[in-house]
Amino acid sequence: MRWAHLPMSGADHAQRTIIAQCPLCGRSDAPVYAAFPVMTWVRCSCGLIYMRLAADYGIPMLSVGAPNLHYSRRLRRRISKSRHQILDALNHTTPGPLLDVGCALGYTLQAARQLGLEACGVEIDEPAVRFCRDQGFDVQVGTLTHIPFETGRFQIITMKHVLEHTPDPLAALAEASRLLRSGGALFIAVPHAGYRKAVRDPQHAKFYQPTPTGAEGGHYIYYTPQTLGPLLAKAGFELVHVHPHLVHRAAAAPVRLLQYLLAPFRWVAQRLASALGLRKEFWLVAVRPPTAPS
């Protein structure tokens, strides 16, 4: 995704309200969690961490278009990781058309194609859109809350490291619900607010500092499974799984056999990572039940 520059506000960096009330519980009395001259983060009693105030300071352009070689040279590894993520979703739904929200250079689209799925994408960065179209994908310019595809078109939607980029996650999830078929699966990956280094010293954690790798990269909210799950429920989704699956039912038989053999070791590794706060991101799958609002 690409984030537009905001004008500089002046030497005093006067801050304006970005998120007035907690998007999860609606409270407005969250105490300060980390504060800088250009932004203020708060942590609500429900556990959600979000940017309450920010100055109109310069956010750098982050382009993921084809000329960005540092990004594109990691494409093969990203495609492989995306296959695992799609297979996670397929543990909870049937195969069908996939939409990748914030599709960047199309590594999730490539993975979906390898799995025999129709793949579409939406992306704000126009060079990236052109790059994906050159690969034969139906990719449209859009945002998290305005996605130009018809209602109920998709069986699977992936949102990987995009939900933290909006101050209105419920609006983004409502758009996903509109596009997803009943019984369809929503895969989400986001930074983990429970990451040990971020929890130990929020004031110096990269998550919250106004740098290109932290808040200045366009992040507004940080989640844990315990806060994102209820937010999904408010949007009409049912949370069905957190963290990577140990076995993929849609994988080829030899792959499933290997996964069964490795499952006990991976289970222990996952539990240790969670207990020690070593997860810098987390994955989850939610489904849109037949009773979910349109």
Terminus-to-terminus distance: 27 Å
**CATH architecture heading:** 3-Layer(aba) Sandwich
Name of the level-1 CATH class: Alpha Beta
Task: Work out the helicity level.
Answer: 25-40%
Query: What's the number of structural domains?
Result: 1
Would you identify the regions where 5 or more consecutive residues have pLDDT less than 50? Answer: 1-11
* Helix/strand order, N-terminal first: EEEEHHEHEHEEHEHEHEHE
Count the E strands. 12
| Strand-residue proportion | 15-25%
Tell me what you see in this structure:
It is built from 8 helices and 12 strands. It is α/β, with parallel strands linked by helices. The chain has one domain (69-287): Rossmann fold, CATH 3.40.50.150. Strands 7-6-5-8-9-12-11 form a 7-stranded mixed β-sheet, with helices on both faces. Strands 1, 2, 3, 4 and 10 form a 5-stranded antiparallel β-sheet that branches. Helix 2 crosses helix 3. It is globular. It starts with 14 loop residues before the first strand and ends in a 7-residue tail after the last strand.
Concise summary:
The chain is of the alpha/beta class. The chain contains eight helices and twelve strands. A seven-stranded mixed β-sheet has the order 7-6-5-8-9-12-11, with helices on both faces. Strands 1, 2, 3, 4 and 10 form a five-stranded antiparallel β-sheet that branches.
Topology:
Blueprint: E1 15-17, E2 32-36, E3 39-43, E4 49-55, H1 69-72, H2 75-90, E5 98-101, H3 107-114, E6 119-123, H4 126-134, E7 138-141, E8 154-160, H5 169-179, E9 180-191, H6 196-200, E10 221-222, H7 225-234, E11 238-242, H8 253-275, E12 281-287
Parallel strand pairs: 5-6, 5-8, 6-7, 8-9
Antiparallel strand pairs: 1-4, 2-3, 3-4, 4-10, 9-12, 11-12
Helix pairs in contact: 2-3
